[in-house]
Design brief:
Helix content: 25-40%
Shape: elongated
Oligomer: single chain
Number of domains: 2
Structural class: alpha/beta
Radius of gyration: 20 Å
Largest sheet: 5 strands, parallel
CATH topology of the largest domain: Rossmann fold
Number of helices: 8
CATH architecture of the largest domain: 3-Layer(aba) Sandwich
Number of strands: 15
Order of helices and strands: EHEHEHEHEHHEEEEEHEEEEEH
CATH superfamily of the largest domain: Response regulator
Length: 244
């Protein structure tokens, strides 16, 4: 059973979608919300596997709402935008449904969801017992200007502190998110993410090389080529963790 929440400011649109979803018994609509702040509250309380999300809502948009979440479930956007406008967002959401939603397009979107489930069976089960710690299967939403991404934590090599922001390194991208390194460190699983120094948290699985560095520290070379110094204090911890 896939638990879903519908987030849309139009009651008629929510009802219409609920009616269409009756043809998909594997999807259970457990709640609905009429705006972004209700949406965030419902997602954090109920931890659904899937959300149907309207993009244009009064106050905060659907994109703004995703930016407020610590981790994002699978997302199917519902929108009155045309397909071309959406391409600009570069969001790798599961799918977009243009309103009024056509049953055929909804069936395609749900098919994509099932394919994703087969590829990543653990993501649906990643309802952590300890919900405050994010697992590497969790995905986060990152928005930088007009570009947006859903990124799995396991694909993030590095977080770098830039004032009140953190720069997120994945693939060729380095967008900024409004989160401090300390706040991130509290939520990330220390088995995967390691605080190398005051300015950097690295993904231990994406380290290419470890070299001794001056003053008894270490120098890590990440898979993306970035070189990160491990402070002397953290080097002791790093060696213990890696049994070096």
């Amino acid at each position: 059973m896939i638990r879903a929440i519908i987030i849309d400011d139009e009651r008629l649109a929510r009802n219409e979608l609920k009616k269409l979803l009756m043809d998909f018994p594997e999807i259970e609509v457990i709640s609905e919300a009429a705006n972004a702040s209700e949406g965030v509250e419902q997602i954090e309380n109920l931890n659904p596997e899937l959300i149907f999300l309207d993009i244009q809502m009064p106050g905060k948009t659907g994109f703004d709402m995703l930016g407020d979440l610590d981790k994002t479930p699978h997302v199917i956007f519902t929108t009155a935008y045309d397909e071309y406008a959406l391409k600009a967002f570069e969001v790798n959401a599961l799918d977009y449904l243009v309103k009024p939603v056509e049953p055929k397009r909804l069936a395609d979107a749900i098919q994509k969801l099932h394919l994703q489930e087969e590829r990543e069976p653990n993501q649906m089960q990643s309802l952590n017992i300890n919900r405050s710690i994010l697992s590497e299967q969790d995905q986060v939403f990152v928005k930088d200007g007009e570009r947006c991404w859903f990124v799995k934590l396991s694909d993030i090599r590095l977080f770098e502190s830039v004032g009140n922001y953190a720069k997120v390194y994945f693939g060729p991208n380095k967008p900024l998110i409004l989160k401090s390194l300390n706040a991130l460190e509290e939520r990330l699983d220390e088995k995967t993410f390691f605080r190398a120094n005051r300015k950097h948290i690295v993904n231990l699985r994406l380290i290419d090389k470890v070299e001794p560095y001056f003053n008894g520290g270490l120098l890590l070379e990440m898979k993306g080529g970035e070189k990160i110094e491990v402070s002397r204090r953290q080097t002791v911890k790093f060696k213990e963790m890696m049994s070096l």
